[in-house]
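Researcher: I'd like a candidate sequence for this fold, 356 residues long. If you have to choose between options at a position, lean toward the conservative one.
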């Protein structure tokens, strides 16, 4: 059996799909599983993972041209996949059209509450209704369960091994044997499709990180991608405690650096999931997005949110739409959250970290 696993855009999406893929592998040890990735960074996570018998990359933000797209579809058709699964959240027409054009006979996807006609969801041979109460990890496990025809709700959740011991040594070399305790700070997030609205102001990150470092006697490592240099420096500029700006690294090295930290303070981002899935306690700031759906997975984390009517804006019920109510600023709840309020919400969380 040959399966095509279609992953939504984003590092976080890859990690939140992984437990479902792992369960597919354990239940179908003889199947050949292929990944359809929509971003190059996914290759950094997937390359070398024995889970995958093949990896296919097409980036929708880059112009492929008609010939390039036709060639890609031809490559998929030549694989003769027995089934495809479009994992959550994949509510656009491209996710539904691609496996159809690739000649996949059994095509599974979710039945979203919005865009049922415009997303071409009717092209799928089987659909699973979205459960708006579930975290994305559990949502995706339900899709795998439908394919397998068995209940997986009590199965253990496994995340990928991101880095090797060699890469862990490289991360420790980057740190150079400095402080005995580190906290990770990530003031950024994806900026695509207005997602920079997920960012708490960097100056407040710096002030809150300062308080954490004082309480836990630690040094801050400030993470961010090539387009987040200004954010990182804005955090460092307001900090009085020792801090260090971490230059962008390969994702596996970044994951290893995060693992050296006793906690990660961040927005809703791929770094958040990279830390949480690697076992690092996370304190995550949430505004327009819904932590019940895509917060850091597990029970050892801290959600920092200003409770306001109408927030979160983007939930499992409206996947596929970024439409905003008239006059609503998606940043409003984050901008209304003070450092003092965030600090108060972290009290019990920091007590657990400090006693660990």
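Model: Candidate sequence:
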């Amino acid at each position: 059996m040959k399966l095509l696993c279609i992953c939504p855009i984003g590092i976080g999406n890859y990690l939140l799909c992984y437990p479902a893929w792992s369960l597919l592998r354990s239940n179908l040890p003889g199947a050949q599983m292929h990944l359809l990735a929509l971003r190059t960074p996914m290759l950094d996570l997937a390359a070398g993972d024995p889970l995958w018998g093949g990896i296919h990359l097409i980036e929708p933000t880059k112009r492929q041209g008609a010939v390039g797209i036709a060639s890609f579809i031809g490559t998929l058709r030549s694989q003769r996949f027995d089934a495809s699964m479009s994992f959550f959240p994949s509510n656009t027409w491209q996710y539904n059209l691609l496996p159809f054009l690739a000649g996949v006979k059994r095509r599974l996807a979710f039945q979203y509450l919005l865009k049922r006609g415009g997303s071409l969801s009717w092209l799928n041979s089987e659909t699973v209704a979205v459960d708006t109460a579930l975290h994305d990890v559990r949502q995706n496990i339900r899709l795998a369960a439908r394919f397998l025809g068995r209940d997986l709700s009590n199965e253990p959740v496994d995340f990928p091994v991101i880095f090797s011991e060699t890469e862990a040594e490289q991360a420790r070399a980057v740190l150079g044997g400095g402080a005995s305790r580190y906290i990770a700070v990530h003031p950024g997030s994806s900026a695509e499709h207005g997602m920079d609205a997920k960012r708490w102001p960097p100056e407040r990150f710096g002030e809150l990180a300062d308080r954490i470092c004082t309480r836990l006697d630690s040094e801050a490592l400030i993470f961010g991608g090539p387009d987040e240099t200004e954010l990182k420096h804005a955090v460092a500029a307001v900090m009085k405690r020792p801090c260090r700006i971490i230059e962008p690294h390969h994702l596996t090295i970044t994951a290893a650096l995060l693992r050296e930290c006793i906690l990660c303070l961040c927005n809703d981002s791929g770094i958040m999931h990279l830390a949480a899935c690697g076992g690092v306690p996370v304190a995550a700031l949430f505004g327009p997005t819904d932590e019940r759906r895509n917060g850091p997975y597990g029970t050892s984390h801290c959600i920092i949110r200003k409770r306001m009517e109408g927030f979160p804006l983007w939930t499992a019920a409206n996947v596929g739409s970024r439409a905003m109510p008239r006059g609503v600023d998606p940043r409003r709840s984050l901008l209304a959250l003070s450092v003092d309020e965030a600090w108060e919400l972290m009290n019990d969380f920091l007590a657990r970290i400090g006693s660990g």
